[in-house]
Amino acid sequence: MTATILDGKATRDEIFEDLEARVAALKEKGITPGLGTILVGDDPGSAAYVRGKHSDCAKVGITSIRRDLPADITQEELEATIDELNANPECTGYIVQLPLPKHLDENAALERIDPDKDADGLHPVNLGRLVLGKEAPLPCTPRGIVHLLRRYEVPIAGAHVAVVGRGVTVGRPIGLLLTRRTENATVTLCHTGTRDLAAQVRQADIVIAAAGVPGLVTADMIKPGAAVLDVGVSRTADGLRGDVADDVREVAGFVSPNPGGVGPLTRAFLLSNVVERAEQLAGLSD
Ligand SMILES: Nc1nc2c(c(=O)[nH]1)N[C@@H](CN(C=O)c1ccc(C(=O)N[C@@H](CCC(=O)O)C(=O)O)cc1)CN2
Ligand SMILES: [Mg+2]
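Above: inputs. Below: predicted complex with magnesium ion.
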C-alpha cells in the first residue's frame, strides 16, 4: 500500500482564497484586520515562522504589526510590549512566538494577552472555553489537523487516535478538539512516560506525532491503513526532520508529510482566527 498524501499546501491555498475574499468584505465595511507578532531573541526557526506569518498577511490583505525584542529582555519589558498590543487598536489579534528564552515565564506571558486578541487560542480563558465547549479562537495547529482530516474524508467519528506529545500548542489541545461531539473520536495522549508506546500507536486509526523526536514513529508501529500526521519538527545536521519515519508510507492509508502537511495550515488558521475575530467585531458573523 502507498499512502494518500494529505497535502497541506494545496489545502492552505484554498483557505487563503476564502480569507482574501472575507478580508476584502471587511475592508468594505471600514475594518482592516491586523495581526501582531512578538518575537523574542534570534532563534532562526522562530524568526522564519514569524516572517512566514507576515508574508501570509500580505497575501490576504491583513495589516502586519511586528515587535522583535532582544533575547535578554526582562519579563517586565516583555509584558509592557504585550500591554501595548492589548491597547493598540490597529492590532485585532496577536501572538507571542513560542518557545520564549528560558529565563522568561511563558505561561505568565500568555495569560497577560487580552483573551479577545488571542490569535493563537492559547490563553487560559480560551483553552478553558474549549474545555467547556464554548465559542473561542482555537489553537491553530490542532485546527489545521482537524481540517486536513475532514478535507481528505479520513473517518474521525468513532476512530481511535493516538497523540504522541503533550505540548501546549498541539498535544494537549488536539485531544480536546477531537473528543468534541462534532468529531467524536477516542483519544489516547502518549508522552515520554507512556509504557510501550508502540502498542498504543499500533491500535490507532489516526496517529498524530507531535513529540519533536526525529523518526520516533516507525512503520512497525502503524496499523495498516491508518492515517499518520507528522507534526513534530526537529532541526538536525541533515536539515528539518519530522517525527515519522519515511517507510510509514508503505503501511499507512494516509500520511501528512513534514514539511508540507500540517505546518502550512498552522499559518492559515492563525489568519483565519484573526479574520473571524474581525468579523465578530463587524457584526458579520453569527
Ligand atoms: N505562538 C506560537 N508559537 C508556536 C506555534 C504556534 O502555533 N503558536 N507553533 C510552532 C511554530 N509554528 C508557528 O508558530 C509553525 C511551525 C511550522 C510551520 C510550517 O509551515 N512548517 C513548514 C516547514 C517550514 C520550514 O521549512 O521551516 C511545513 O511544515 O511545511 C508554520 C508555523 C511553535 N511555536
Ligand atoms: Mg504549531
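The first strand starts at residue 4 and ends at 5.
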